[in-house]
Structures are given as C-alpha cells and as structure tokens.
Amino acid sequence: SEADNHTTDITNNMTTIIPNNNYNGTGVTPSELLAESVIELAKGSTIKDAKLEIEKIHPFQNQSAEDVLARAHLSSRPSDLFMQIMADVIEAVKEKPTSGTVSPSLMLSEGIATSTVVSMTEDTHKHNAHLITKAEHEVLFGAGFWLKGKCAQVLREALIELSRKAGASGKKISVRIIYDAGPKGPTRTLAPSKHWTKSGLPSIEEVPNLDMQVLHYHCGILGPFHGKFTIIDRRIACLNSGNVQDMVNLEMCVQYEGRIVDTFYDLFMWLWEKDLTSWIGAPAQLSLEEAFQESSLDNNPYADDLHGDLPPSNVRIPTDARDPPSNRLEEAPGFMRIYRHQPHRPVPIMMVNRSPKGGPGHSDLINPQNAAFMAIFKYAKRNIFIQTPMLNAKPAINGIIDACQRGVKVTAWVCWNYDGAKEKYVPFQGGENTQSIPKLIRKLEKAGVRDNFTVKWYTGKDRTAPVPAEKKDRNCHVKYLSVDDEVVMTGSGNHDTQTWFHSMEVNVLVDSKQLAAEWKQYLENNQNTDMYGYLPSEAK
Fold first, then answer.
1. ∠ CA(38), CA(44), CA(48), 5° rounding?
2. Which one of 51, 304, 347, 420 has the fewest beta carbons within 10 angstroms of its own beta carbon?
C-alpha cells in the first residue's frame, strides 16, 4: 500500500537517531555536543557550580540563529517560521542564560514523537506507569503535584513492580522524583520517606531494589514547580500536561525519542542539583525503525484499555443530544485514548522553559517560554490555534489582538472558568475566562477585527454543551499552541498570569507539519468543542 511504501522509504533511509559515537555522519561526538551543559560541566563539581559557569560562558553570545543551528547538527533544516521563533528565544537566553532551566547548548535538538495520549488524567499516567515498569536503569519523574488517589496508585504499583523485576534480575534501579510540596513545605530539599508516602508513593521498604529519592521543589510564595515529564533510561521522554492528581481533566502526554531526550535529561539534572554518582552515562541506541515498530505500546498491559482505531478518522462523531452522557468520557463514541503517530524523520525540537519567580509582580517576562509565546503571535501569517485551561495573561491577550490586526485567524479553545476561584479572587491574576474573554472581544471589536477571532469552550466528547468547571464533571487541562499549521508548542505552560510570570514550566517547540496535523486532528476527535463549544448565552 501507499502507506506501507511511505514507511519503508523512511525506515530504509534513516540512520540511528539516538546519540551514539557519530551524529548523522558529521563526526561530532556526544561529548562535544554536550559541552557547556550541566551534564559535562558538573563532572568533578556540583550542578550549582555548573550553572554559575554557564552564566559566565554565555553560550549564545555573538551567535546568530544560523550559528546555533550549525552547531546543533540537525538532520534537516528547520522551517523559516521555526527559525524566526528560535532567533527570538536565543535573544532571551543571551540576556538571561539560566532562565530556561536547561543548558543553552542543548536547547535546540531533534527527535520523533512515537505516540500521544489525549485522555483522562489517569490514562496519561497509565502510559507513564507502563514505561516505568520497562525501565532497566533509571526513572526520572517530574510533576507539579503528587497527591494520593487513583493516579498516584497507578504509579505506586508501577514502582513496586519495577522493584520486583529489578530484584529478579539482580539489579538496583535508580529512581528520582521531583514534585511541588507547596510553599509551606521544604523547598528544593530531599524529602524523607515518611513525607513522600503521604503523597501515595511507596515506602523504601516496599521497593528494596530501587535507589529512590524524592525532591520537594518550590520557589518562594508564587513560584511553583509546574513542569510535568518522565524520562526512562535516557531513551524515552514523556511530556505531560497533567499532575499526579485525580481530576476530571482531559490531558495530553507526548512520548518523544531521539536526541531531544538528552535535553530532558539535562533539564532534570539542572533541577535536581544533587549528587550525580548514581546516574547513567551514555543513552541507549535505537534505530528509527525500532522506535516505531518496537513501540512502547507493544506488550503494554494497558493496551486493550487504551487503544482505539488508529489513526483518527477525518469524520468526528457527534454525540446524540438525546442520549444520556456517559459516566466515563472514554466510553464516548469515537473517543480514542492513544494515538500512534505515523513514522517520520527526526524533526527539529527546541526546549523552551521558564525558571520560577517566587516574588510578586509581573516583571519576569524574559525567558525562553515567553519569548516563544510572543514570537508565535508576532510571526504568524495565516492562523493560530490555542487550547488552554485559562487565557488571561496580558501579553497573550495583546499578542492575540496584534495577530488579528495583521489578518491572522486566531482560534482559542478554553475552559469554562477552570481554576475560577484563584483566577477571579486572587489579586492581579487576570480574572476567570468568563471575565477575560469578553474583555478581549470588546478590544477586538474596538479595533475592527472581531471576525478574526473565534473562541469556543471545552465540551467533552460525551457532551453537547460546555460544563462549568466548578461542577467537576468535564474539564480540559491540555496546553497546546500551533501556528500556521506548521510549528507547535506544547507542555505545561498555560496562558494565565501564573504561567507567564511565576511558575517553573517545561515546554517544547516542534517543527513538523505532519505532527501539527496529527495532533490537531486527534484533539478535535477527542472532544466536541468545535461542534458544541458555546456558552448558553452564545448558543447558535
């Protein structure tokens, strides 16, 4: 078939995409590409010392985007749009080298996306749990919150199973976990076992074959750890939108493989700031064919529970308004809990994070995340698509208005007052969506460009109308931003004041028309927002 031929062409023409002794035939070794990163600089010293060294080095000083691209040795040249966004990100790093909580030399990389889960929070953690049970050397996990419940239990059982398997093979597997214990708890400190068991993690006695440590991370009053990601054996990285917390949220989890995993690995060490002696060195090798054909979905104990008919159909299945809604979103007709991406070549990926700021105020604007956000609004030519729980940050509002004034069509899918109490009543947060969106629309009307902006309210796949968040019935916590159907930014960052000015966030910028199309289609398939996303006052 045409699809089979396409897959064969790709797999036959690709070399190893996970780092080995030679990147793409250039003769560049991993150690050379990792130079000026905390992975290399911390050898014989501490990560804190390595960070200070990076501040002195200023890796991007006197370098253009073309210089940074040449050093990255990517398999293919990024699009012009990606290069424009990257150039603005580089300028932010030049001004604040450590604002991205990752070594600048590793920010630009490449990789593949093998699978994506867009489903309930528990499903995304079932995927992470399966990967954990397959680990052979090391598990690194970051989550904003880790609270007792079904999600925590899924991961707890996975860690216990991993310990059992390690014991059977005579191994000791390293496990490092970071989560936010809140401003009242210890900050950036290793937690004793008696503390983490209260969050639903197993005790040391329950996992005797794991070298397990947990770090509580928080910065000041307003600077939480909001990143969410998993790294398995320095071979696989999952970028999650959800915390380890039982919520009625639609979430997103993307599994990446390839050189970008080194960037995630560096990020974790950057955050950990502790002893490196137990960490594994070089990543495992994996060919492109193995990455797709020997996917982690195979032999997955959750496969029957997670699989749908892949890829998604072009025809979305509307819910019959006469049918009562299901109690489980996953039971809605046409809902697919996991998507296996079509094989593709490694694509350019840039990590665009922000470091936390614990103090009050809206002055901390310069960082890779915000530079990428603003560049997307600035360089868009045709369209911007946003899915976010909250949309009230002033720079995001201004970016939308500017884009609409240039004739760009902007579509925003938002929640009906997600986290409404905090957004509405906490000073300087920007208000809940039913306050901020009408204000935005009035500004667009005044500018004469209202027709260039479409807003819809998240509607579950089993619903025919939006549900207010306070009902705790159907919410969406996905963070997704695409521009001109070509470049995508996804991760932990919302478009609220907290994300733009305070939280520690982890995001990636992906340059791929194929992935942009597949993600957009998958998101559309797993919700009824496009068809029914109108508030009662807007119903058509």
1. 45
2. 304
Angle of helix 368-379 versus helix 80-95 axis, rounded to 10: 140
Tokens 């990076």 -> residue: 54
Please classify residue 492 by burial: count the beta carbons closer than 10 Å to its beta carbon, then call 0-12 exposed, 13-18 middle and 19+ buried: buried
The separation between CA 492 and the C-alpha centre of its own chain, rounded to angstroms, equals 5
**Under 8 Å between Cβ of 403 and 385:** no
Residues 6+ apart with CB under 8 A from 337: 117, 118, 119, 123, 305, 306, 307, 308, 330
Contact assessment for residue 201 and residue 129, using Cβ atoms and an 8 Å cutoff: no
Query: What are the phi and psi torsion angles at 95 (to 5°)?
Result: -75, -35
191, pLDDT greater than 80: yes
Residues facing residue 138 across a β-bridge: 174
Q: For every residue of 281-341, which 3-state class applies, written as one string?
A: CCCCCCCHHHHHHCCCCCCCCCHHHHCCCCCCCCCCCCCCCCCCCCCCHHHCCCCCCCEEC
Residue 327 CB-density burial (10 A; 0-12 exposed, 13-18 middle, 19+ buried): exposed
The pTM score is 0.89
pLDDT band, very low/low/confident/very high, at 329 (cuts 50, 70, 90):
confident
Quickly state the pLDDT bin for 291 (edges 50, 70, 90).
low
Pairing type for strands 475-476 and 223-224 reads unpaired
Where are the extended beta strands (E) located within 67-153? 108-120, 138-143
Cβ atoms within 10 Å, residue 90: 23
How is residue 124 written in tokens?
Answer: 């995304």
- Cα separation, 350 vs 45, in Å, equals 27
Q: What is the pLDDT of residues 126-180, one digit of tens each?
A: 999 999 999 999 999 999 999 999 999 999 999 999 999 999 999 999 999 999 9
For residue 311, whether the previous peptide bond is cis, meaning omega lies within 30 degrees of 0, is yes
Question: Is 152 within 8 Å of 196 (Cβ atoms)?
Answer: no
* Alpha carbons 70 and 90: distance in angstroms, whole number: 14
Give the SS3 label for residue 215: strand
- The answer to whether 351 and 467 have CB atoms below 8 angstroms apart is no
Distance CA 254, CA 115 (A): 6
